[in-house]
Amino acid sequence: MILDTLACADRYAGLHPRFVQAFAFLRDTDLETLEPGRHPIDGDALFAIVEDGPGRTREEAKLECHRRYIDIQLVLEGIDEMGWAPVAACVDPATDYDAARDIRFFNDAPSSWIATPPGSFCLFFPGDAHAPLVSSGSVRKVVVKIALQES
Hints:
Blueprint: E1 2-5, H1 19-28, E2 37-42, E3 46-54, E4 63-65, E5 69-77, E6 80-86, E7 104-106, E8 112-116, E9 120-124, E10 128-131, E11 138-147
Antiparallel strand pairs: 1-9, 2-3, 3-11, 4-7, 5-9, 5-11, 6-8, 6-10
């Protein structure tokens, strides 16, 4: 898991071949004009999801993980207090892995909480379970999904 600002995103370019394109999209797109929902960047290999709505409580949030995608979750408005725990430490699954949606949920509590303000992002790898959209107010964010392998 990485927490940083978009201004410092270039330091992560070497971690995955699609990170340059993903961060270029986040910097060069007028994200405020994007409607909630899915936005293609490069097919299923790289796409963005805009979320805009009320936050939930820590108790309502479930840890989730992905196997096929890395998430870059950039907060645009509000503060998203994302929960985090290593997947290896999660021992109480709430669901089986859903391959079609690339997601699994856990009942485990996060081991830490990361208050992510506007202009900052959390980068979650498949080993990172995360509980997003925790806020006392509204949150607007864009999640860029990066396929681990070429599609």
